[in-house]
Amino acid sequence: xxxxxxxxDDAGHVRMVDVTEKKPTYREARAEGFVYLKPGxxxxxxxxxxxxxxxxxxxxxxxxxxxxxxWELIPLCHPLQITSVNIEFDIxxxxxxxxxxxxxxxTDRTGVEMEALTAVSVAALTIYDMxxxxxxxxxxxxxxxxxxxxxxxxxxxx
Length: 158
Known about the structure:
Layout: E1 25-36, H1 39-46, H2 55-68, H3 70-73, E2 82-92, E3 97-108, H4 113-131, E4 139-149, E5 156-157
């Protein structure tokens, strides 16, 4: 059974994959997500008029912190020596959308896809949290891996 399912042992029990024998290699993952807002809320964010403070910088810090703690949130993730986390925001004014992108890097034994996805997720949730008093209809959508490199599965690009 272990040949088919990396996280299940021969007895059918869940397990963490043993990466002890793997050599550390360079790994990078990118993820994106979208936050849909009413135009007035987007203007408030960009003009620093949200009562809770600077929304995008708070979301950036939250995403970075989340990437570093992914192993504490997702049960079978390994703690990794993350060497870089970057979160950027693209403002799509005509659609009243914020596109978030995370880039996470490491030289380690396993990849950082979950860290990149967690970073985008928590950054998007932070935007919601900081703006929910102004509008509860904010939507978070399309959180997805866009790129990863390293490891035996090689490079993936959406």
